[in-house]
Amino acid sequence: MNTIIEWLLQPLSLVCLLLALCTLCAFIRGGFFLGFLNLVSFTLLWTLSTPEFANRWIQRLESTRNNPSICTDAPAQHIVVLGGGMNPWIPDSNPRQRLNQDSIERAIAASTFTGTNTVWYTQGAGANGYTLADDMAEILISNGVNDASIKRERNSQSTKENAQFLGEFLPADESPIIHLVTSALHVDRAAAFYNAEGYQVCHLQGVDSRYSIPAPPVSLLPYLSGLEKTTLAWREKLARIKRDILN
């Protein structure tokens, strides 16, 4: 009972209930076709918003890439850290205020992989005098990474450009092995772009996964958190389709 009450108190539950009422009215007053359209809309919204559906899709997208065999014993000599986004218009000297939480957690997780001869590469442009590369580097430094070991690539504005512009600091001529730090959802697409440039890619495991174990029957109810995850999965799926078409 408490679960139902908690679900009813969230905004999405009201939307779903109103849509269900509209569907019923459409069948009664508007005829079969209008009622059917409303029913399809209601079913889609409900399904796409359930943590059950969202987490299953996230899990599938996050598990599409396995590290090649060369990664088993390869030392983490070149670590490439990709940010997850920032707001450069926040007037604060602290990068933690500009970076989104994904970027911060990713940099903190990445800092634990540092070694004696590790060279770090932070990537990403920005605006308003701030860049993703610089802010991510600051998080790494605050977590024990030596500033002198960090190379900052400040011009790339997409994952494809990340891969292309890394060559300014690490030429791909001899197919170097890089250890890529990005979200589990993004790693398949990102690794493909770096592979296309000539790099051998090992992704570091366990970095900001979006997956959480669904727990029925609660996970069968629609939640905004489920809809958010489905939106992220949808955007990533479209980006992969675009990548495959253009390549």
Using brief descriptors, characterize the structure shown.
Rossmann fold, alpha/beta, 10 helices, 247 residues
Shape: elongated
CATH architecture of the largest domain: 3-Layer(aba) Sandwich
The domain count comes to: 2
Low-confidence sequence ranges: none
- What is the assigned CATH homologous superfamily of the largest domain? HUPs
Radius of gyration: 22 Å
**Mean pLDDT over all positions:** 85
Give the total of beta strands. 7
Order of helices and strands: HHHHEHHEEEHEHEHEH
**Number of helical stretches of at least 4 residues:** 10
Predict the CATH topology of the largest domain: Rossmann fold
Could you give a short account of the major beta sheet? 5 strands, parallel
Report on the structure:
This protein is an alpha/beta fold and 247 residues long. It has 2 domains: 2-62 and 224-246, no CATH class; 72-203, Rossmann fold (3-Layer(aba) Sandwich). 50% of the residues lie in helices and 11% in strands. It has 10 helices and 7 strands. It has helices spanning 2-8, 11-30, 32-49, 51-62, 95-98, 101-111, 132-142, 159-165, 187-197, 224-246, and strands at residues 78-82, 119-123, 126-127, 130-131, 150-153, 177-181, 200-203. The strands form 2 sheets. It has a 5-stranded parallel sheet, with helices on both faces. Strands 3-4 form a two-stranded antiparallel ribbon. Helix 9 (187-197) links the parallel strand 6 and strand 7. It starts with a helix and ends with a helix. 33% of the residues are buried. The model has no long low-confidence stretch (mean pLDDT 85).
